[in-house]
Amino acid sequence: MAKPIMAKATAVWLVDNTTISFKQIADFVEMHELEVQGIADGDVAAGVKGFDPIANNQLTQDEIDAAEKNPAHKLKLKFNAAAQGEEKRRGPRYTPLSKRQDRPAAIYWLVKFHPELADSQISKLVGTTKPTIQAIRERTHWNIANIQPVDPVALGLTKQSELDAAVQKAAAKKAAEGAVMTDDERRKLVSTEQSLGMEAEPKIPTAIEGLETFSLSGRDEDEDEDKKSAHLDAANLFNLPEGGDDDEDDDN
């Protein structure tokens, strides 16, 4: 089932304006039932304004009435011809005015953690221009001192699936070029799910690299020999010659 736009805000509206069960709302907006209950309790989505799914052509009043009468009824997203092909959008996306101030932080995050992404890919992901991307890459942006990297998915500027697709495309391109990648680069060039599923590879600190087979057994034996030698040398050093004859000569 397709997910409604502004899912959390839609859930807020349904909780506030209908008697539909939390389970029905959770299934419709693809959230956990406990999250919807948290919205009702005021613990989740505090300050989020409800998004009317009827006025925005996502649900019909008849569908809501049917769900209120039957707790087992599953809400069905209304077919919206204008939304068809949205996933195949080409070129830079439109960014709402309220989120345009977040774009430099998102660009900085992409440049820092995914430097393999081309400027054209970043432009499509967050809806920006190549000069802005270049300024942040070269740290010549007028506000670079105050920009902190923030995940564009967390900012709502792009979807995780779109970011993963762009990263995978960059990985395929780099592999085709035959470039040798380090472990860190390899992890950056895969999707989030693949990266989280990888096993951590043991690494040896460079400070002790090459000393993996170093043994102290031979050193202990050498130290024991040195101690014995030192003991013998000290004994010889303080072993004074017998002076019986000298004492007799002195007495005479």
Classify the beta-strand content into a percent band.
Answer: under 5%
H/E element sequence: HHHHHHHHHHHHH
Please, how many domains? 2
Spatial shape: elongated
Q: What would the average pLDDT be, to the nearest integer?
A: 74
Calculate Rg over CA atoms: 36 Å
Number of strands: 0
Q: Helical content, roughly?
A: 40-55%
Summarize the biggest pleated sheet. Answer: none
By helix and strand content, what is the structural category?
A: mainly alpha
Instruction: Supply the number of helical segments.
Output: 13
- Distance between the ends: 124 Å
Give start-end ranges of low-pLDDT stretches.
81-88
Structural features, described:
The chain has about 250 residues and is mostly helical. It has two domains: about 5-85, no CATH class; about 95-195, no CATH class. Helix content is about 50%, strand content about 0%. It has 13 helices and no strands. α1 packs antiparallel against α2 and α5 crosses α7. The longest helix is centred in the C-terminal third of the chain and has 21 residues, at about 215-235. It is elongated and about 60 Å long. Residues about 80-90 have low confidence and may be disordered.
